[in-house]
Each structure stands twice: as C-alpha cells, then as structure tokens.
Specification:
This protein has 220 residues and is mainly alpha-helical. The protein has a single domain (2-213), classed as Phosphate transport system protein phou homolog 2, domain 2 (Methane Monooxygenase Hydroxylase, Chain G, domain 1, Up-down Bundle). The protein is 87% helix and 0% strand. It contains 6 helices and no strands. α1 (2-39) packs parallel to α3 (77-109), α4 packs antiparallel against α5 and α4 packs parallel to α6 (181-213).
C-alpha cells in the first residue's frame, strides 16, 4: 500500500511539473502576441503559432499522465480530485494558448497605419490583467488557496468592463474614419480573445476551489 501511494505521489509530481511549464508557456505566448501587436513582428507571430503545437502536445502529456494515474493507481478522495482538476486545468491552459495563437494570426493579417488609434494602450492593459489573473491562479493552485482563487474570478469583472470600453472606443473610431475598419475589426477580435482568456483563468480558479473544498463551484 505504501509503495502504491509512493508511485502515485511520483506521478502527481510529474503532472504538476508539466502544468508548471504549461502556465509559463501560456504567459509567454500572451506576452509575445502583445509584443507582435505593438511592433508588427510577423516572425514573432509565426513563432507563436508554431509553438502552439508544442503546447497542445504538453496538454496531451498531462492528460495521459492523469489517465494513467487513475487507471493504474486507482486514487481516491483528495488524490482523485487533484488529478481530475489538473487534467481540467491543462485543458483550460491549452485553450488560452489557442487564443494567443489566434491573436498572432490576427496581427499578421493587419495592415496599414492607425493601430495606435485603435485602443492599443487599452489592449495592453487587458493583457496585463490577464497575466495578473494567470499568475494569481497559478499561485492559488500551487498553494491550494481557495480564497485567492475566488479573488481571481472576481477580477474577471474588470476584464469584462475593459472589453466593453474597447468596443465602444473602436466603434467610434471606425465610424469616424472608415480606413480603420479592417484593422479595427481585428482589434475587436483580439480584445475578445483576451476577455476569453480571463474566462479560462476563472475556470481554472473553479478547479482550485474544487481541489481544496471538494465541491464544484460556479465562479462566473
């Protein structure tokens, strides 16, 4: 019995190590996408899109490790909750990376001047908010801090408000100058993707609460 639990502990540590890398890769992808938007670096955009394949593979590794641990070690109670939550967290992180990749593709399709007139500073603020939520929810995950997880979910309201403000700003800019419509539409999608990142961070926060308290909780 002790040997079985030791094997399970080792497997859980392996899963957590993969998750830590996933968190870091998602943060880097979001930062990279914002840098590409600010600089128009198409090579950087292409690198983010190509790296998304590697992130998908790491998510699959986490899922595989979780399923193997469940099938071979038959965990119960807290151990089972941890593994199920980790599998769900990996899926949420993978989707956040998809949003960063989508942003990179949108940046590659943008053309012409006027980006600074289309809420660039506000989009940067949204990225910063996403990164704060992601860092905080990772810390909540590592420290099993349900209160911090709930605070992350509460911060999503600010991100939603930021999206609404950007939409209003972009629509006004496009009505005033029709040459901004193409890039403005892409900026709308970029802001929408960032708002969805906040939703995914909230979903991760729900998994932290599930691990700690043993109950499914809707924090949206």
């Amino acid at each position: 019995m002790l040997e079985t639990h030791h094997i399970l502990d080792v497997k859980k540590q392996q899963i957590e190590a993969h998750l830590a890398v996933l968190f870091e890769e998602v943060k880097n992808a979001l930062d990279g996408a914002m840098i590409c938007l600010e600089t128009g670096n198409r090579d950087g955009c292409d690198a983010i899109v190509r790296n998304d394949v590697r992130i998908n593979e790491r998510r699959r590794l986490v899922e595989q490790d979780c399923l193997v641990a469940i099938a071979s070690q038959q965990p119960v109670a807290n151990d089972l909750r941890d593994i199920v939550a980790d599998m769900r967290i990996a899926s949420e992180l993978e989707r956040m990376a998809d949003y960063a990749s989508d942003i990179a593709r949108l940046v590659m399709s943008m053309n012409g001047p006027g980006i600074d007139k289309l809420g660039l500073a506000e989009v940067r603020s949204m990225v910063d908010q996403c990164q704060t939520m992601l860092s905080d929810v990772e810390r909540a995950h590592r420290s099993a801090d349900a209160a911090l997880a709930r605070a992350v979910a509460a911060a999503d309201d600010k991100l939603d408000a930021s999206l609404k403000g950007i939409i209003d700003q972009l629509l006004a800019a496009m009505r005033g100058d029709t040459t901004l419509v193409d890039n403005g539409t892409r900026m709308l999608w970029i802001a929408h993707n960032l708002e969805r990142c906040g939703d995914r961070a909230t979903n991760i926060a729900e998994q932290v609460v599930f691990r700690v308290e043993g109950e499914a909780t809707d924090l949206n």
